[in-house]
Amino acid sequence: MKSFGRAMAAGVRCLVALSFCALLMAGCGGGGEETSAPAPKNKKIVVWHWMTDREDAFVELAKKYEELTGVKVSFELYAPSDAYSQKVRAAAQARALPDIFGLLGEKRDFAAFIKAGHIAELTSEMMLDNSQWKNELFDKALAVNEFVKDNPYGVAVGIYGVPIDVMNIQMVYNKNLFKKAGLDPDRPPQTWAEFVDACAKLNAAGIQGLVSGWGEVWMIDCLASNLAFNIMGPEKVFATLRGEVLYSDQDWVQVFSLFKEMAEKKMLASGIVTMVNKNAEQSFANERAAFAFNGSWCVNVYNGMNPGLDYGVMLPPKINPGNAVYIWGGAGSSFLVNDRSPAKREAIAFLKWLTEKEQQEFLAEKTRNMPSNKFAASKISTILGDFARGMNYVTHPNFWPVNELPKVIERFDKGIQSIIIGEKTPVQLGQELAKLKAEEMAKGR
Amino acid sequence: MKINKYVITTAATNSFVHAFLIIVSATCIFPLLWMLGSSLKTQSTVFSDMSLFPSTMQWKNYLVAWTEGGFGVYFLNSVFYTVTVVFGIIMVSSWAAYAFSRMNFPGKNIFFFMFLGAMMIPLPGAFVPLYVLVNNARNFLLNGLAAATPVLLRVLPDAFVYGSVRFIEEQLFPRSAYILCMINVGLSLSIYMLKTFFDKMPKELEDAARIDGCSRMGIWRHVALPLAKPAIAVITIYNALNVWNEYILANLILPSKSLMPLQRGLMVFQGEHVTQYPLLMAGMTITVLPILIIYLAMQRFIIKGITAGAVVG
Amino acid sequence: MAVLADKIKKIYNFFHDAAPKWKAGAVVFLLVALELAFLKFHDSRFIWVTVYGLVTVSLLFVLIANFAKRTFGMFVFILPALAIFATFYIYPFFKVLQLSHNAWDGIAPTMDFIGLGNFKEIMQDKIWWGAMRNAGYITLIALTFQNILALSLAMACDRQIKAKNMYRVIFFIPPVLSEVVVGLIWRWIYDGDYGLLNYALASMGFKDLVHNWLSDPKTALTCVAIIHCWKGFGWGFMILLAGLQTIPKELYEAARVDGANVWQTFKNVTIPLMIPVFVLVAILTILGTMQVFVLILSMTGGGPGYHTEVPVTRILASMQGSSMFGYACAQGITFGFILMLVSFAQIGLSRKLKQA
Q: Which candidate from C69, C96, C283 shows the least CB-CB separation from B105?
């Protein structure tokens, strides 16, 4: 028995050693050069995505598509989004991207992928048959994937992605808590003064005001940008981004002061500066705060946490009555086609099918997202319909003619956090940002 | 009188020690209980029902988590990866640590400090070169196989050749690449930990074995390894937990769902926006159990260290 | 062949017998030379040929020296470890080193060589050094608070007491728990309005201490550090316990026979025998703590402001947030260099302690 065990051990040892050697040779031999992946067999499309909650719906659609056309579509989910991002970037370096993939990141990352030749241009496909495909989709959703003339990235003009849903970020308010504080549940505050007033009344009734995931800084960025657009209008914001107007400008200081006001008047839920959005959503769903600043995906979230929650959608309060209100929105998620893929044509055909009315309705119903196809909007819930109405006010950094430098964005958002906790004054932040912006611009040149 | 005093002080110290241990234990057990409790609630009561265990227990959450998360395949994969990686690390690192601790040969110090340095430098961008490396190795292997296929087809049955080529491409290669990567991840730290323990162990038994004519490999296998059981237990637990909870490298290297480890199953419940907390907690309870079992099994060896140490000392 | 082996043996012996300061000098010289070559020949294949050539030549040199000294049988023991290491570490390492000298967004097929530009920028990056200081603070708390807790628990469980096996299992629960659970529980404890901690403080009469712990810059970092210590002490406990159990019981009995009290036994028996394990635990604590980030991202997201940022969250921010891949690699290399200095200083210190 014992000798058998020893023989086994020796065998295992040999096996382990052998496999090491084999792999080492394989590993060393290939290192260094870049070769493209071997061509996949025809009539098979591989899709990489990170959308955990939609995996089931996608797989169902893929089955349907295979029955219809004989083309096999395999959806491969890599989650969470950080891990997905890493995989896509690594695969781009190894030139091993799949036929269809999604991209997480900002417009400059998108541009870099296009410039590296990883993404196919789709305008001609969109324009076929009197631009039939293009007309089916929401303009604002397409705008996210579009590069216009004279874009700052130097990318050739065109549409480079197919939106599969749309979203926007607005404010929601709890009707029950409104009643409790003696406010009219059907008339949410529309101006800043009304908003301040409502929060004061809520506070008096022992209810917290606004909750949001401001620990994830981009949500601060979003609200600050909305307020800035309303106060100074889009042109002046863009001028700031181009470096023609300084952040120490009066209007920007006013934007920062609004956050100071919110903090001082206790209009914000406690701990908001370090709150992750998931916690903020919990807080709102459990009726611990009367307002939330959140994206249209929240309908799905609140529905799961508290099906009985009675809430309404509102635009962010207006400060400057002379200007329009803007919110962020556009395509929620988009799919891109790999320009090097041998199955490029099949991939485009599949995406065309995926954004048709029927499939979009199916996705909207299954995943409670707003569809990117204009004609599929009938199958969504009332509250999502309220969100959809906000699409008229939508803007997004991805369709601005100019974007802020990443370092400045970070300092901007973190600076607002500092204002909320009383570490900095609005004027200080304005000056700090103006200085940083000048430094960064000098570096760029 | 003297004995009495001794008994009293011992009792006093013991009760003090117990009080201390119990307080710390309470803080450790509470999250576990909370996790169990939450796994038995529903999505809408998980944060509103403040009682630790709900009045109506949703035991079916476990069943739903298992089937919806597709835990069957993932579970087997995770067990496979954990066992092979931990076994690999123990073999490779105990060889190396034993050599670093007990032998003298050219290059010893350089290599030891190299491993030590590798343990400390985080490589934030390493996933890109790692992916490129694995991908190139894969292409190289596939090209080699494609070249070898016609030759093999002459001697072997077609089905067997195509079957094994597919097996290598879809199963053997990605799995071994992932396993080797994970061995590399745990290697440096394990070598360092084991060396520390080997250094502490008395050399007398090994000398005796050498005099009895045991080979170096024999001494390592029959003297050093059994003596190092507590340290090996520590390494096993450390690396098992590491592999069991790993998903970033798995996402990067493994090309298909059927190869993924358990953490992939948990991701199903953590959507972009919606997290299904009760199912997630049920899934986490399922994933934590095997680790606690490994720990229970391994910590016996940590106790056994007493007798081993006593015999030697 | 024999002559060559003899030569190599001689060269090896020459290096081997050199004084430590010469050895250290040689290593520094080699590194500087490599870096200079790197800066000079960055865009040609020459640098890669040099790097891999050096690696191969030195491996061959060591191999032949081992043959010559008839120690190849021993060398075989580290060969598998070396092979895996060479495949999966050395290539990524040099690649990251190369990237750290470039301005690169992580996507483009080409990159701009900027020499030491990234490192210069790091030197002036106040936020980075602030993050470093935060990590140092957490590490300090972990080294003292966490390890003292772990050691006292390990010593308590090393005694002959009831239910000690149960405690051993219980103390290992925090390390195996997922960050999701830990984050949820501790957020609930620290919460400003519904938090357990505030509730306890208020009911004990410390009303003025009640506030939101995680969004106050004065307490945020300490709160995160405490969670980290709580999550990590199980490892220290386990390793220290394993170490304590290898101390022969006879030594304790001998000390008791000699009339030593508890403190004297601890000082004269436990500590001297445990120094290597202490160093191991200390280094593991440093490495584990300096690289903590999942917890921080889920608790505070690095905020408020920059008050809980640590180097790893900064590296992630430059890599994903700002697409400065080269800069992130340079940050990683700098960070690793500092970690290495700290750890080696610790090892050196322990050697001194051992001799004293």
A: C69
Phi then psi dihedrals of residue A325, to 5 deg: -90, 140
Which residue from A34, A83, A304 is facing B274, i.e. has the nearest CB?
A304
At A400-434, the pLDDT tens digits run: 888 898 889 999 999 999 999 999 999 999 999 99
Closest Cβ opposite residue C277 in set B95, B196, B305: B196
The per-residue pLDDT for A410 is 92
Give the tens place of pLDDT for each residue, A144-164.
899 988 888 889 999 999 999
Per-residue DSSP letter, A1 = -
**Which of A27, A81, A89 shows the shortest C-beta gap to B137?**
A27
Q: Which of B9, B20, B24 to mutate to test the interface with C (most CBs of C within 10 A)?
A: B24
Q: With CB atoms and an 8 Å threshold, state whether A53 touches B91.
A: no
Measure B305 CA to nearest chain C CA, in Å. 6
**3-state class of C323 per DSSP?**
coil
The least confident of A70-84, B162-176, B216-230 is: B216-230
Do B123 and C92 lie within an 8 Å CB cutoff? yes
The whole-angstrom separation of Cα A166 and Cα A142 is 10
- What pLDDT score was predicted for residue A252? 96
> What ipTM does the predicted assembly reach?
0.86
Predicted pLDDT at A42: 56
Q: Which two tokens stand for residue B13?
A: 């110290």
Write out the H or E segment, with its range, that includes residue A334.
strand A334-337
| Residue C83 or residue C194, greater confidence | C83
> Which pLDDT band, with edges at 50, 70 and 90, does C44 fall under?
low
Best of B9, B15, B21 to disrupt the C interface (most C CBs within 10 Å) is B21
For tokens 């200085």, name the residue: A435
- Cα–Cα distance, C119 to C99 (Å, whole number): 12
Query: For residue B104, which residues of chain C lie inside 8 Å, CB to CB?
Result: 71, 74
- The residue of C48, C60, C89 whose CB has the most chain B CBs within 10 angstroms, and thus the best one to mutate to test that interface, is C89
pLDDT class of C231 with cuts at 50, 70, 90:
very high
Whether residue C332 and residue B121 make contact (CB cut-off 8 A), yes or no, is: yes
CA distance B13 to B23: 16
State how far the alpha carbon of C50 is from the alpha carbons of A304, C41, C69, C100, in Å.
Answer: 60, 10, 28, 18
How far out from the chain centre does Cα B271 lie? 26
Residue-wise pLDDT for C46-86, tens only, equals 777 777 888 888 888 888 888 888 888 888 899 999 999 98
The DSSP annotation for chain B comes to -HHHHHHHHHHHHHHHHHHHHHHHHHHHHHHHHHHHHHHTS-TTTTTT--SSS-SS--THHHHHHHHHTTHHHHHHHHHHHHHHHHHHHHHHHHHHHHHHHH---TTHHHHHHHHHHHHH---TTTHHHHHHHHHHHHHHHHHHHHHHHHHHHHHS-HHHHHHHHHHIIIIIHHHHHHHHHHHHHHHHHHHHHHHHHHHHS-SHHHHHHHHTT--HHHHIIIIIHHHTHHHHHHHHHHHHHHHHT--HHHHHH--SGGG--HHHHHHTTB-SS-B-HHHHHHHHHHHHHHHHHHHHHHHHHHHHHHHHHHHH-
Tell me what pLDDT residue A40 has: 44
